[in-house]
Hints:
With about 260 residues, this protein is of the alpha/beta class. The chain has three domains: about 10-45; about 50-115, Roll (Ubiquitin-like (UB roll)), CATH 3.10.20.310; about 120-250, 3-Layer(aba) Sandwich (Rossmann fold), CATH 3.40.50.10960. It is built from six helices and twelve strands. It has helices at about 5-45, 65-70, 85-95, 170-180, 185, 215-225; strands at about 55-60, 100-105, 110-115, 120-125, 130-135, 140, 150-155, 190-195, 195-200, 205-210, 235-240, 245-250. The strands form two sheets. It has a nine-stranded mixed sheet with strand order 6-5-4-7-8-9-10-11-12, covered by helices on one side. The chain has a three-stranded mixed sheet with strand order 1-3-2, covered by helices on one side. The termini are far apart. The model has no long low-confidence stretch (mean pLDDT about 80).
Amino acid sequence: MSVQAHPRFLRRRSRIREHGARRHVRRALWLLLLISAIWAMAWAAQSPWFSVTNIEVVGVGNARVSEVLAENNVYEGRPLVLIRTGSVEADLVADPWVKTASVERRFPDRVEIQIAERWEVAVVSTAQGWRTISDDGHIMSSVPELPPGLAQVGAGVAWASPEEEAVSEAMLGVVEFLAALPDEILGRTIISADGGVLAADIDGHRVRLGTPTLMAAKAAALAAVLDDERLAGDAIIDLVAPSRPAVSNPPPPAVGGTP
């Protein structure tokens, strides 16, 4: 014996089935739309529209930028989204010539690289021979002889740890002073120290620098004093207080053993 369902119940069940079918169709359409959008973005990101056409490098002189870019697959035609800026920056900073590096992707097609390089300001004598030192105290390279245009750091300026290529506080003060000097003065400068007190010899002038503090200000004061045409050729310049530089003549030589 069969029982026939009421027509109203059959109509309700039919509507539920239709609603479920429409819901599944909508889900399928949304999924298809999402997949299509992801595919379109992936295609566009790797298309010529978003590939590198310009690599702009600013601030490079001695750093091996070309090698780093080649090692990290940064080249014209490469999709911009595949370039890992953090990896490129880390490899650039590993170069001893590079202080800081910034790598930016500029959509749609440009890579911008900003580099701040170290530069050599002096040569120092170590157990391994002459070494150049940078403006921020890094040991750079070995040289067989004194190169022109660099200051010479002589006796008394101690290393903190030559074996570890670290520099002392006095040496850091020296390179701060030298980095602030004009180029035409830098190459004529010889730095020495006695008991932690720094001094310089420049074209016959004895320059008292004192302790390694306010060294950039002392460099500016020295440049101003040397620019004064009234300065005697053998004058002693005292820059212990850079805001009040003092100039004096050397004492007269002793006569007959009496000072």
